[in-house]
Amino acid sequence: MAEWIRPRSISPGSTIGLAAPAGPVDRDRLDAGESALAERGFDVVRGEDITAREGYLAGDDDRRAREFMDLVRDPAVDAILCVRGGYGCQRIIPRLDADEVRRAAKPLVGYSDVTTLLLWQARSVGLGGIHGPMLERGGGLDSVAWDALCQALYGDDEGRVLTGRGEIAGLAEGRLCGGSLSMVVASLGTPWEVDTRGAILLLEDVQEAPYRIDRMLHQLEAAGKLSGSARGVGVGALTGCGNPDSDDPSAEDVVREVLGSLGLPTVSDLPFGHIAENHSWPYGGRARLDGNSGEITLLEASTDSLEGTR
User: Fold this and answer.
1) How far apart, in whole angstroms, are the C-alpha atoms of residue 81 and residue 83?
2) Pairing of strands 129-131, 108-110
3) Among 270, 271, 235, 272, which residue's Cα sits nearest to residue 254?
4) Number of alpha carbons in the 13 Å side-chain half-sphere of residue 204
5) What is the pTM of this model?
6) So what's the pLDDT on residue 19?
């Protein structure tokens, strides 16, 4: 892996480029999200074909990859914010230029399927990113989530605390990695496979049955990504992951049972994932996890004013 760097920070009034690297985009939500960014003082640019659709994709692979690389290359664009997830990021990776992405060192913001791009940047580019909100909710994030995103982009989030619930006692420090559980598991065996060595693994997901979450966690353990590798685990929202009318274990019960058997310090109910309170965190940034208090404290900012190594 290339020597690690953080993306460059941006300033109020900077230009954010919008990308649709995965699923098709709803124009009304896109317009509402763009307005919300403008209200926060950002200039926003987007391609005319960002609402293209080809089945379950936002246009063909060439369109989506070209859009992403055009934003990377455009000197007027300071950061890249993905509009939505869905599926499709994995398909464009062979068309992306790792060297150009590293030289540009622009903050990349997204979650869900964009987890794949954050994993790829970490392993193939040696560049951090921002696991944070997109525009699939239009402007419908809570104000704290918007503030957290701005702090991350400005490099002002060192010391910020994500508060959840302590599940398994213990303290851990390490770099943050992870994202969508299903995308993290899908990375196994690829060049952008998740690297949990000495890391704090953060996970969330949406519309996954508890038995599937059980299977994916056990697959991560079998692949050597949990005990003996990760130093701690933080769990965000598990949105729509279970049937409240069923007697089967809940998604939260499954996580508690599987991780509890491993003894890793664990925090649950963290404010990130497929929720309006989707608070940003730095992919690759150092943090401290406290399984007693249920807190994760960011020990370094998401972005850096210089392209220095960390």
Assistant:
1) 6
2) parallel
3) 235
4) 26
5) 0.96
6) 98
The packing angle between helices 210-222 and 251-262, to 10°, is 20
Nearest to 8, CA basis, from 102, 71, 96: 102
Q: What is the DSSP letter of 54?
A: B
Positions marked active-site: 112, 204, 274
Straight-line distance from the first to the last Cα atom of the chain, in angstroms, rounded to the nearest whole number: 14
Q: Which residue pairs, CB below 8 angstroms and at least 24 apart, start in 205-208?
A: 205/180, 205/181, 205/238, 205/239, 205/241, 205/273, 205/274, 206/112, 206/237, 206/238, 206/239, 206/240, 206/241, 206/273, 206/274, 207/239, 207/240, 207/241, 208/181, 208/182, 208/238, 208/241, 208/251
Angle at 196 between CA 194 and CA 199, to 5 degrees: 135
pLDDT digit string, tens, across residues 123-146: 999 999 999 999 998 877 889 999
Encoded tokens for 194: 């998740």
| Cα–Cα–Cα angle for 292, 115, 219, rounded to 5 degrees | 65
Regions of the chain with pLDDT less than 50: 307-310
142 SS3 class: coil
State whether residue 176 is helix, strand or coil. strand
Strands 129-131, 171-180: pairing is unpaired
pLDDT 10s digits, 234-279 = 999 999 998 777 888 999 999 999 999 999 999 999 999 999 999 9
Nearest to 255, CA basis, from 131, 163, 165: 165
